[in-house]
From TrEMBL, chain A:
Residues 138-239 form the Pre-rRNA-processing protein Ipi1 N-terminal domain. The gene is TEX10. The keyword Nucleus applies. Residues 559-928 form the TEX10-like TPR repeats domain. Residues 1-22, 297-317, 410-431 are annotated as: Disordered. Belongs to the IPI1/TEX10 family. Coiled coil: none annotated. It holds the Pfam family TPR_TEX10. It is found in: Nucleus, Nucleolus; Nucleus, Nucleoplasm. It comes from Esox lucius (Northern pike). This is Pre-rRNA-processing protein Ipi1 N-terminal domain-containing protein.
TrEMBL record, chain B:
It comes from Esox lucius (Northern pike). WD repeats lie at residues 117-158, 189-211, 265-306. Belongs to the WD repeat IPI3/WDR18 family. PANTHER family: WD REPEAT-CONTAINING PROTEIN 18, WD-REPEAT PROTEIN 18. Gene3D superfamilies: YVTN repeat-like/Quinoprotein amine dehydrogenase. One of its GO terms (cellular component) is dynein axonemal particle. This is WD repeat-containing protein 18. The keyword Transmembrane does not apply. One of its GO terms (biological process) is rRNA processing. SUPFAM superfamilies: Quinoprotein alcohol dehydrogenase-like. Pfam families: WD40, WDR18_C. It is found in: Dynein axonemal particle; Nucleus, Nucleolus; Nucleus, Nucleoplasm. The keyword Cytoplasm applies.
Amino acid sequence: MTKSKKKKRQDDFQKVKLKVGKTKPKADNATNINFRTKGIHLTEQLKKDGSAPTTHRKLNIKDLLSQLHHYSGTVKQGALVGLRELLTLHPSELDQHLSSLLSEVAAVFTDKDPNVRMSATRLLRFIAQSVPAERTCPFFPLLSAHLSCAMTHIETGIQEDALKVLDVLLDHYPALLAARPALLLTNFLELISHKSTGGGARKGQEGKGRSWALSVNPNRNVTGQQWRLTVLLRLGRFLQAVVEERRAEEGDVCVSGDLFGGLNGEEGANTPLELNWEELTYGKGSFQVFEHSGANPTPHSTFKLRPESQPGTGVSEGLSSVEAVRGFASTLVPLLLDVWVEASVSDRSKTDSAHLLTPDAMALMYQVLSVLQLLRKLTPQREHQDALDAWFRSEYLGEFKQQFMKNFPYGNLDTPKQRKRKDAKSKQTPTVPGQVVEPLALNILLCQVMVSMVILNQREGPAQEPDADWLMPLRGFVQETLSSGAKLSHRHLHTLLETVWRMVITQRSRAVTEDLLQAVYVQYQQMNLNLQTRTLLLSFFSRLYLQEHNHIHIARSKVLSRWLAALPIQLSQLGHRNPALSGWLLLSIQAAASRGNKDLLKSLHTHACRLYDPQEGSVVLLPAESQQRLVQLLYFLPVIPQGLLANLSRCCTAGRFSASLAASLIRIIHLRSSLSGWSVGSPDTAVCDVDYISFLFSILTGFSSDELSTLQEAGDESVLPPSPLSPLSLYPTPLEQFTHHWDVVEEVCHCLETLGSRSQCFDVLQNGICKNLTGLAVVPDSMAAGLLRAVARLLDQSVLPSEALLRFLSHCCLSLLSLVLTLQHTASETNHKREAVWGACVAALGSVPRLLRMVLQLLRVGDLCEEELPQLAQILSLLLQHTTLRNHMLANASLLQHIIQDLTRYCQGEAREQWLTDLLYCYSVTMATHRGNLGLRDIY
Amino acid sequence: MSAPMEIIVCADSAGQLWNCAVIELHSGTNLLSYRGGNSSPRALTVLNGEYILGAQLGKNFINVWEIQRKDQLQQKIVCPGVVTCLTSSPNGLYLVAGIAEAIYLWEVSTGNLLAILSRHYQDLTCLRFTDDSSHFISGGKDNLALVWSLASVVQLDSTNAPEPRHVLSRHSLPITDIHCGLMGPQARVATASLDQTVKLWELSSGEMLLSVLFDVGIMSVTLDPCEYYLFCGGSDGGIFQVSLCSQSLSRDKTFQSDNEGNQVFKGHRNLVTCLSVSMDGTLLLSGSHDETIRLWDIQSKQSIRSINQKGPVTNAFIIPAPANMFLPDSRPGIPLPRFSRHLNPSEQGEGVETGGVCVRLAPHTQVRPKETYLEKADKLYSLMSAVTDKSVFGSGENTKVRVSELEEEVRTLKKVNKDLYDFSAQLLTKPN
């Protein structure tokens, strides 16, 4: 028993004997590692939720948004990427979840992980691209709150990325951003400076504007200057957005900053206020109320549709008043000056001379100046700008002069040298790749910087003598740049012209004005300018000219009058190549002509024949609106010579411009003749009476003598051959031309009617027709109809028309009557023509009884062949049916009877045809009513 | 009380029988005629109901008649040049004439030449005053119409030349006629031009309200007193009536005759140079170069009378008859002084003779800053919002006093009320 007990005890802790050379026995608890594993990646959820669209990971928008609260950066980034994917695939999701989306995305602007921030920015850009501004509007306070949170974040990385977010917003929602400028502006300031929290004593010493001081953060991975540059770049863009938004709000096309925006800016200078209540409720807090829509808003107005958004905590309250802008400027300008000084000082250490700058410094300075420039434009109303400028001048002129102007002269003198240096330098040290600016661009940039400073400094009033010291180099530089003949880009030219404008307006000295204008004129005379530049220069001059009444030195400028005198020839040379530019030219010409500018009128007079050439003159080549202007220009010509009148009459008849324009041309010539009698008493008539009447006569005929003579020889193919029923061979004018001529003749008739004595007028017309037209064998139908109409309208009972005239007219009339018959069978589009011709014939026959008799006499039945007999009968029955002619027909009853007898005799052989029956019926009806009348008369 | 008598004053350029004639509006009888010379277009005016002034056609003087002495010229005002247009202010204090490019402004009481305004570049064609004489509008052949404030023109400050208040520069050909509506500086102004448009402007802001394009040049324009219609006399003899009540909002429109007020009065055969509407807006007077004056019934658009003249009509307008006109024994209230031809009479040594002192107030005292509607509204607004601010009651003891006063009043009122109640209750509860 005991033995067995012992055995058992030993069993518990059995010693394992390990022997050398033998394999170690496996432990009982050893893991068998003879298996292989494979990973299973669950990239997508297994559950399928059919209700909402998902990403390829089967995550719907709610999951993704909740993932944004995850602690891990990768998850957050993944969620952002997923959101982007989801939104691209299903844009409809964007509309539904915009509010939560924006709030969640904005929340990660301040994330610690740079990758997350980058993805957030990218997502924001994507959203901004696809959502219009008005839909983002309600969420914008949230966005901007997060943005300013990021901008003021203590970590520099977040600050830097906040600027990228700002970029996105500036790109897509500039107006929304600009609507609440207060907070952002403070943030900008805080990015490059800090509010000095020093004691009050120090503050007192420093003065009012020095509570902010420039700061440098050594932790940044860019230099202080580069950081400032990036911030200033954004500030500039932001201010630009504010300025633009304000301009759009004013509905003001032509702010003084944008002097040459358009020539029609004159109209836009005082655009009416149009209130749209719907917009106002969603738009700004307040709006100006105008006293009985007077030009000046009442300053007392307190009406607001909405409480103002909480006032900015910082420097300004929305920049809506001059004081606010001034306050902001007083904080910002010293900072900018500091930036400038630091840049120039740090630069001086690198280069030997103070004139030469590195590209970084140059870019920084440029930003400084453009921000200054924008500050000026921030004033709510234009009239306040002068006040602001005056304030700028009084506050900062000294400092500006000292800092900016100290090294100025080198800017233009040494630039070539500087460029070389720059080239060499950039080859040696290509260390700053992002900021290297092309040397030429750099040059021009420098010009612009200096020039924009000029405006700023010079804004106030007439230049006093003390300014001369720093104005002289500026002026010299501007002149040199302009007159060097180099081509300048549109932007630079624009800035330069603004400078010149300011100088000319403010300096009030003739010599200076002449020099500057001469320099601009050199630019203007350059060949091959593009349209934009050309328009810019043109509008510069024309606006200057329109301003002249205020400034006597401008009015007397020789350059300006030379420019004016050159306009007509430019217009004629331009031809039809550029209607827009011609339009600009015409505007200036018209303005000058209406002011009776002698130089212009003289030059216009010499080039009038070219301008109004019926073949290739501007008047026929340009679009309708310019044509009208050209026609109106005629009014101002002091003398309209014969040659010009001939051209004009050809213009009117050729149909290159509309009949209504031709009519207004005739009217204008009419007004300028002594016969119109509008300006009673004043003897300034441009057209002598003989010329005027011959002008009217040539329009009445509608064809020049050359054209008529070619028509005579044209042969048979184009004209209708003469026949006994149509003694003249008619040239059928195209329908369009006929209508045109018909309308113009109406106006001519009206002018002739109002000439005064009708009988004399008719005499003149009669002589004209007899001398020029009676010999014609081929007559255009439009001319014949026009003549008949004019004669019918002008003839007085007292006048006895001459035999020759009547013979010619009777031929015309008969030919036209047979034309009417042929037109009856053609398409309906000639209806108008037929009616016009028939009306003219009837009117002439009705007003001149002798004409009717002669026409009847012309109808010799014996000469006609058989086919023409029905035609004759038709003519007669038409005439008989016409009520107004009936009495005249009766007066020629015997003649009529004779014709009808002849007709019946000639047709006796055959069966009586329908036409003859009709005619006889008409005849008998007419005669019967006549006899009835006679009978009645006999009774009484 | 009988209705005011309205008369037609008209003149033609021939002037054979008379310079200007006065015709009864409703009967067409010729009442008076003033002899001597003839008048230029838009240069006949009645000054203060006491004188008739007409600029001689093509000469450099103005004929003046006393309104009751028809056959005798009172005087001739000799001017520096040919007068092209002339008008007098409705209050009879100023006379304005256009002489070549310049506007001459005289003070009637002294005859002094107060200002020469040369802002126009070409000859003037028309001058019009507002009905309260505060502004005048000048139109010229340089396509411009200028609005002048009389107060700013008259000021003695010679250092800066007076500037027009507004420049209306949208016409592209000479301006032929101007009409100024009622309501003083808030009036609407219609300008007609040879560029075939008539434009309606607001005087206070200088904004264009409407532009109507026609087929012909427009030589004359007028509005009826209610400004329902615009009447435009065309150069072809048509008179176009444009309804201003249409619903279309477009600022530029083309005239088309339709049945809704846009109509044409046909009858004249030549330029319609003068238009005028009677006080009640039922009759339209038109004068034309076809040597007739026509009277139209506006409602039915018919010509109800045609009066033949001896030459092209230069002036024709309807005015209420001045009191003195038909009393041969009456005298004008003020004798007309000699009108000076030079700007500063004192320099010529003439100013001393008169012995009077010319008192002219400085511009800022002349124009009293009157309380505008908006300021009134502001005041009202502040009063309304003051309830919340509690600023109405002032502050401190003032408030206490006021509060106690009010409490006192409430107490009395309560007492009165109770008495009244008791009394009436007593009365009602009484059995008989």
